[in-house]
Fold these 4 entries.
Entry 1:
Amino acid sequence: MGNKPGTVFNDQMVADFSTTSGLTEMQVREHCIHWLHQHPSGRMKKKCFKKMMSQALPHFSKEEAEKMENHIFRIYDLNQDGFIDFHEFMTVFMVLTGDQPKSVLEKMFRIFDVKSTGTITKEEMLILVTDMHKLIRENETDE
């Protein structure tokens, strides 16, 4: 699991992810192995992401789920190549669960900056708030 060519994670990534997530290194390695089993190329295709999101958001209509998928996929696909690799997945997870407020705020900004222009327009804010409203409503009904 070290730095062999073609490996999508290494010992340092496992250690960092363990520290940030609160998981043991063994648990992190199990997640890594599961990732590679599910995505042998080391990259998650948007189609797989869509399936994962439909399972995570079962009460969303197809249209609502697609909007959320697009917003969330854009956050994970840091290099905008149309795939989520394990490093991108771990980076977003660690930032959102980490204790670096600046990094968390930068990621949150990217969520609202729908067109990736470096600014948030009123239109982008309305799009995102409308799309995420169902998440809030669903969360309130679950409580």
Note: The mean pLDDT is 75.
Entry 2:
Amino acid sequence: KQWYQRRVRGSLGLTVVVRPGPFLATEWDYGGFPAWLLKDRPTLDVRRNETVFMSEVKKWYAKLLPTLKPYLYNSGGPIIAVQVENEYGSNRPCDAAHYDYLTQLREIYKLH
């Protein structure tokens, strides 16, 4: 942590946009979702407010997001933004269900 903070903030003066998922990029296998997520649930509806999927997202955020907090810009860190979703609408239409999913992600972020 100390090396990262000193290197990015101090000598380089760069700011950072963090992309913690749940969806990372189409270039990654299954968008960066872990393989175990579908192991026993091959028809799991991801990137929607599906109960099982959102439960896993909440667990991931509960572990990850608190570790980022000290590095947020308003805490003196280099992180200026946390990207809630990536490639919005690339695999499904931007309909009300997708908007509800994004809203739920934002609300989970705000809890941490």
Note: The beta strands are 16-18, 79-82.
Entry 3:
Amino acid sequence: MALPGSNRVWCMSALGIVFIVTGAVLPIVISGIDRAVINDLMTLDPSSQMFSSWQDPPIPLYMKFYFYNVMNKEEILKGGKPQVVQIGPYTYREHMPRENVTWNDNNTVTYVQPQTYIFDRSLSVGDENDTFTSINLPLVTLSYMMKDLPGLVQKMMEGMILASKEELFIELSVKDLLWGYPEPLFKLLQPLVGKSIIPSDHFGFLMGRNNSGVGTFTVLTGADDKAKLNMVDVWAGKKKLDFWNSHEANMINGTDGTMYHPFAQRDEIKYIFTPDMCRSMPYIYEKDVEYKGITLWHFPLAKYAYANGTDYPPNQGFCTPNCHPSGLLDVSACRSGAPMQLSNPHFYDGDPILAESIGGLNPSRKLHENYMDLEPLMGMPWRFAERLQLNIFVEKMENIKQTGDIRTLYFPVLWFEESVVVTDDIVAMYTDGFIIPGIVCGILKYVFVAVGGVLVISVVVILIRRRRSKKIVRVTNPNIQTKTGHSEKTPLLS
């Protein structure tokens, strides 16, 4: 049996309102579901879907090395301006699984992360045996450590340098400088000063680092507070560092850079704790960028990160004890007193005097900036590039003639880029899991609102038409009875 007309109209009206309300509420419901799914996913827990990827990251990680080939060593020893030519990249594939994973009762997890480097010839300009001329890091380091000692001691040092046939510049291969080579000066000095001061008679930038880590990490799981997900709580047994001159400088802030808490905010400072730099480095939001149709947030390294204490007073704590020109981080305090400074490649974003003192440098934001492109929902860096240059402070020393008449300057040795780009598989999973449902939800929202609106408007139109038709009937029907029961044509008196 069909519903009466009035019931049908009210049914259409109710249905229209339901459609409109559904369209308005649907995005909120879907957003709530997404939030619940992401919160469940972004937790460090053995049962989490994220755990296996956290324990053994599937995203390819590469480290590219670039070396500065010294072109005019004779002129430099006579006081001339150094001229260098960059060679590279020499690329290594990194594997960094988290091992010895221990879950603690205070919502933290402890692990070590050994690093394995595998040379990739296809992504390199040459072989590991390619050679170049570099400044002699061991000689400069030992000479620097001797500079405040009596002249007689310095003369003894000069004699040992002569006996070992060391010079200020040395011919090395890529493999030598990275993984180690016999160092004659160390061999002579080790029996005199002991292995506690000179532990090996070899020297290499990454010597002993292949298949080993940089200390034990304890990080927060985010189980009780998602904002603390993956934040470093303890490193190498330390809650804070002891290299620097202020509480703020010694703080261990942020994560290891592999993941942050979900639902990021643009005004957050993203810190990466880097053991090789002996500090946490700040990254600040700059702009939105797109990668494969996905909106990411571009966080470059903060401009003040390498500023000295004069240009940026909060960095005074990193002066050990004196401040160097802006653009340098003196890490001698955490490198056994070696006069080493870290910087952006080619002294990008540093005091102009640094790049001007070395011929052949060309600072470039595109090539030398540190940055991460963050996917804000899950808090994962989809593109990341850490670029770091190793420099050594060098000056003429009167009692060590091997230093010649070299200028006082910060000499660049090498720089490297550690980079990650998310795989197409991860982009596809993200698109299928969040982007497409979001688009469908957006379409359905408008469809529901539109259908509901049509139904409500239709009801309004029907009601208006009915009202009008009643009025027309009342005016034109001659048999309409008055309240007294007479028609309009019936005489009042008969």
Note: Residues 23 and 445 are 4 Å apart (CA to CA).
Entry 4:
Amino acid sequence: AVVSTQSTGILAGGRGKGTFSSGLKGGVKLSKEPGEIGQLTEKMIGFNLVTKQTSAQGSPVSNVMVAKALNIVKETYLAIVLDRSYGGPVIVASPDGGVDIE
């Protein structure tokens, strides 16, 4: 079976731990059943996703990305963020990745 992942197309962090107004928990889903992709998509598109970076109403989801999942041996985290107190870009890196890094 093809393993696919779905990610909502909103500009907010914490999607994996978010909740949809449809009742679906989690904005990133893994599935080994191709037939399940359509069912998951129906519970995402047209509904709002609430995360720790959205308002209480959440953000409307109008599209999802479906891609073949890969076996991940190790996750790391790298970001370039603008630091107001420093007045410029700062690199944030961690040897640990995953949904809890934010």
Note: The first strand starts at residue 4 and ends at 8.
